[in-house]
Design brief:
- The N terminus is likely disordered.
- This protein is an alpha+beta fold and 135 residues long.
- Helix 2 runs antiparallel to helix 5.
- Helix content is 46%, strand content 24%.
- The longest helix is centred in the N-terminal third of the chain and has 24 residues.
- The N and C termini lie far apart (56 Å).
Length: 135
């Protein structure tokens, strides 16, 4: 391969590789966020299949997430300070290293094709990201 062809090939390769590294550098994953999930479950069997799939597949952990809070009578009876906690209300908080990690989890093939379909029709969900309060 001549010097000219090598230079052209290298330039073309770098044209694709450099933007990828620049994007990764710009998207530092060092600002934690909390995903808050509040659901009203109507089909406990479907919902449990969904939760089990997340645990079995380890999808949350693969993207750097960890469940930091669980509020469901399926796990423990709540100690109420005020109001009532309905049987079918569930609340979870998942800490992610950054919003990009939460988005990567949410958009992953594993979540979209293996876990999420199990949840469809099991209840209603409100899911949001909030800046995490540092430990």
């Amino acid at each position: 391969m001549t010097q000219f062809r090598f230079s052209v090939a290298l330039s073309m390769a770098l044209a694709f590789v450099v933007p990828v590294f620049q994007a990764q550098a710009e998207e530092a994953c060092d600002t934690p966020v909390d995903m808050v999930i509040i659901s009203i479950v109507h089909d406990v069997e479907r919902y449990e299949a969904y939760r089990s799939s997340l645990t079995e597949l380890g999808t949350i952990e693969v993207f750097g997430g960890r469940v930091t809070s669980v509020g469901t009578r399926l796990v423990a009876e709540p100690e109420m300070f005020e109001g009532e906690w309905p049987e079918n209300r569930h609340a979870f908080v998942i800490r992610w290293p950054c919003a990009g990690a939460a988005h990567a989890f949410w958009q992953s093939d594993t979540y979209q094709t293996e876990s999420l379909p199990l949840r469809v029709g099991a209840g209603t969900y409100d899911i949001a990201l909030f800046p995490a309060i540092p430990d």
